[in-house]
Specification:
The protein is an all-alpha fold. The chain is about 75% helix and about 0% strand. It is flat and about 75 Å long. The two termini are about 55 Å apart.
């Protein structure tokens, strides 16, 4: 009886067959084995760290110095600065390129397509080096420009795909009501496409955040560059490991904050009363159409 009620409760939302008792036991076994493997891997890594004396006080005392702490905070600030500029400019460039690719004028559409395909295929590091060396740009400008050109081109495809994923009948109905293309895009297509595009947008911004670490190759004093300076001035074996153990959790934390922000925005959109369906009163027996006796 309980099994039947459980199946009935899930029948409205399940896109697959409800697993039986044997399948559930097998899935629990797979989960247990996976957990044990992950724990074994973590244990092996911790063993190697302890075996190479990575947790001795000597190797962690330098991080108590004010100068090293200020160097790390300055590098973190420069990383966030480069990311903020690149993220905003990438979103703007991606929007403009997406509009160009969706234009009714073929020269604009062709030019936007060539721009997107070229910079999306070009390695980010090559663009950053070219702007820094050939155009003699400042390290921050070269880093931001390279990240903007690449991520903006990728986001343009995300925007275009998201808008094209909206049902064709939506914009046909809007055109039938006499709306212009700009009105259709602004009031009909984009609001519906945002929910589908949001995970891909946040994922690409996470990529941009991680790619800011390429700035150390052109002497931009970002977070990784600060870690490299600290490690190169430490006088014990394997100095990079403690530095990585400090820097990596901060990078992971920033990426997790971006993911949390995406989930928060998605929940806000679902709770937005402007996107909720309006309640329509049910028809009552005996209701006549206008003009009908």
């Amino acid at each position: 009886m309980t099994r039947t009620m459980k199946a009935l409760d899930h029948s409205a939302t399940a896109l697959y067959d409800i697993p039986g008792p044997r399948t559930e036991r097998r899935h629990r076994l797979y989960g247990l084995i996976s957990t044990l493997l992950v724990l074994a891997l973590l244990g092996w890594v911790l063993y190697l760290l302890f075996d190479t004396d990575q947790f001795t006080r000597t190797k962690w005392t330098p991080f108590e110095y004010k100068g090293i702490q200020e160097l790390l905070l300055r590098g973190l600030g420069n990383t966030l600065k480069a990311f903020a500029l690149a993220a905003v400019l990438s979103l703007v460039l991606g929007t403009l390129l997406a509009v160009g690719r969706l234009s009714d004028h073929w020269p604009v559409r062709r030019l936007a397509t060539l721009f997107v395909e070229f910079f999306r295929a070009m390695p980010v590091l090559v663009m950053i080096f070219f702007i820094y060396v050939a155009l003699k740009a400042e390290p921050l400008s070269a880093l931001v420009a390279g990240l903007t050109l690449y991520n903006g081109s990728v986001l343009a495809e995300v925007f275009r795909s998201g808008i094209n994923s909206v049902e064709r009948g939506q914009h046909e109905a809007a055109y039938a009501l006499g709306m212009r293309k700009s009105q259709v895009m602004t009031h009909v297509l984009v609001p519906q496409a945002v929910r589908a595009m949001l995970p891909a947008i946040i994922s690409q911004l996470v990529v941009a955040l991680k790619d800011t670490s390429l700035g150390y190759l052109i002497t931009y004093e970002e977070f990784l560059h600060a870690g490299k300076l600290i490690a190169s001035n430490l006088d014990y074996d394997l100095p990079f490991i403690p530095v990585v153990m400090v820097i990596s959790p901060i990078y992971i934390g920033m990426c997790m904050v971006l993911s949390w922000f995406a989930r928060w925005v998605s929940k806000r959109q679902r709770r937005n009363p402007k996107t909720d369906a309006a309640d329509v009163a049910a028809a009552e027996p005996g209701t006549l159409l206008p003009g009908v006796q």
